[in-house]
Amino acid sequence: MESKLPEKMLGMKLPGDAKVQPVEVDVPKPGPGQVLLKMKAASLCGSDLKYIYYEHTDKTGGARYDDVIAGHEPSGQVVAVGEKVDDFKVGDRVVVYHIQGCGYCDECRKGFFINCQQPERRAYGWQRDGALAEYMAADASTCIHLPDFLTYEDGAMIACGFGTAYQGLLRANVSGNDRVLVMGLGPVGQAAVILAKALGAEVIGVDISEERMAMAEKIGADYVLKGDDDVIEKIMAAADGKGVEVAVDCSGSAVGRHRCLEAARMWGNVVYLGEQGTVTFEPSPLLLHKNLTLHGSWVTSVGNMEKLVELLDRKKIHPSQIITHRFPLEETAQAFEVFATGKTGKVCINHEMRRETEQEQESGR
Q: Do 193 and 225 contact (CB within 8 A), yes or no?
């Protein structure tokens, strides 16, 4: 553990127009109720790509500030502790829930900081400095202890990606009694496949990308189907002709959302997780007459994220298995370029890669 912290650090900002801006800034100091983290891993999110990397928009629930360090999927180690922090000490490994709410509204009291509507709400990497830097100041109330089994890369996968998938499965009460359809096999869809299997369900995955279909097979989906014109017939064949108990849309597409309604069996549950886009459907035959329950789900709560960490530890599941590309912090621009192809699993900034490179250079290798 470092005895003395540096004064300056490298960070990455996203000014828009598909650009990444490296900056040198002061290392933050933890205030009351905060800890300072040495970042170990930070993964990239589709919302970063869509709404910050390309252009600054407010389509996901809050305007993005121009002058902040990017990254809202952090995992790191505590290197300094501010006043009034009792639950964390120097050396602790943590994963960070990626939003801090006001702390006093109904949603914050439930632990759903994501739903806070007050002006105090700040998301890491959106309205406050985030994870794409060497250090990050984090509110202790957003930090969760990372068990020894889970790596820092695992931790970076949890808050936004796996937490979002887990909350959707909780909404539908997924269990071993269910067949679960996951429509769209990007990173959140892959997380949904892994977690639905961990909860005991049989899983059908659907996508149009050959690369992502191959990933779903690798992580254990029972059936992986191409999202072509015959996919509903294929889903029905895999579900005894009755349809699935739970259909989860992670595609955010009109076609994917509609097909979830089509594929759900009588009295089934449909969960919409994918952001943006639209959907149009006839309520009578697809929703009312099938007695379906349609859920909207957005991220998770701090409490449910703690339960997810416990589940992953107990089941010995590494979320990092969906990482397909890793980059050091200095190569964040290349990481976004690769992620933007739409053919990857999760893309992760591994802060340890820089340290390994520096050590190799120092040793003359």
A: no
